[in-house]
Amino acid sequence: YFPKFDENDHSHMKLAKLSHEAHEKASEFLKENPPQQELTAMYLGRLRTATKKHLHKEIEDIDKIVRKIIR
Fold first, then answer.
1. I need a labelling partner for 43 at 20 to 30 A (CA). Which of 37, 51, 54, 59 fits?
2. pLDDT surpassing 90 at residue 49
């Protein structure tokens, strides 16, 4: 169960902020590391893995907040 977004809930607002920051950081990462070849399934998987590694701190923080929200 995921509750509806509540702009008056500090956790919801923090989650939205972290999501925005992660999106911006991912966009910058992909601009700085554009695909060097056709996006085959294998290459896309590697690119996704590299992006997730780049965002590991943000993903951890987002996961903590989501766990708190869904308790």
1. 59
2. yes
